[in-house]
Design a protein that fits this description.
The chain has 229 residues and is an alpha/beta fold. Helices cover 33% and strands 29% of the residues. The protein contains seven helices and ten strands. Strands 6-7-8-3-9-10 form a six-stranded mixed sheet, with helices on both faces. Strand 9 and strand 10 form a beta hairpin. Helix 3 packs parallel to helix 5.
């Protein structure tokens, strides 16, 4: 599903260069549930941005679902993002003045679905995440856990095969975090590939495979029931 070959990312500020990723080689199979861990500055967020087609590597090769995306321009990258990837963020990124229903409908509006189809799809997804009775509420009327579930529903609207989650439990209490992770596990069981960035070991423990990053490098990985590689 995802293949990274010698991926390097360098940020330049005048004469200064900061190497955020250093020759990363990584393969993620279709249907995997992977967690990425590392301290601040380890490169995990840069890696997520490249996997999510939000940024491009300085050098190296990136193949996503059989498509070489490392050399695409912004227009084509945007198309790949819309078709292949759903995003969930720590800060939810919901429109505070819009209803829950409208927030979930938004990606489908940009995707060109007609009003009847997008409303039907949004209602189905909100029911799936346990918020069927909250469709007319505003995000400010919901708890943090409920807002994150709205964000997850929104990420699923276009049936993307990959779900990227960047610190999705970072703003949640422990109970809400567990509820959100159970939802991710259910989505994964339906066949979606999930890649999760977190600094919390108990959250990473839900994944089948954990990748540990430091200084822009993949240091090691662990799989459930296996020793570190």
């Amino acid at each position: 599903m995802i293949t990274l070959q010698d991926i390097r990312k360098v940020y330049r500020n005048g004469p200064l260069e900061v190497e955020a990723l250093a020759s990363v080689n990584l393969t993620i199979e279709r249907g995997e549930f992977v967690a990425i861990m590392g301290s601040s500055g380890s490169g995990k967020s840069t890696l997520m941005n490249i996997i999510g087609c939000l940024d491009v590597p300085t050098s190296g090769k990136y193949v996503l679902d059989g498509e070489e995306v490392h050399a695409l321009d912004e227009v084509r990258l945007s198309s790949v993002r819309n078709r292949k990837i759903g995003f969930v963020f720590q800060s939810f990124n919901l429109l505070g003045r819009q209803t829950v229903l409208h927030n979930v409908e938004l990606p489908m509006m940009y995707g060109g679905l007609n009003r009847i189809k997008r409303t039907q799809r949004a209602l189905e997804l909100l029911e799936k995440v346990g918020l069927g009775g909250r469709v007319k509420h505003k995000p400010t009327e919901l708890s943090g856990g409920q807002r994150q579930r709205v964000a997850i529903a929104r990420a699923l609207t276009m049936d993307a095969p990959i779900l990227l989650a960047d610190e999705p439990t970072g703003n949640l209490d422990s109970k809400s975090s567990e509820e959100v992770m159970e939802l991710f596990k259910n989505i994964h069981q339906e066949g979606t590939t999930i890649i999760l960035v977190t600094h919390e070991p108990d959250i990473a423990a839900h994944a089948e495979r954990v990748l540990w990053f430091g200084d822009g490098k993949l240091l090691r990985e662990t799989r459930k029931g296996c020793a570190a590689i």
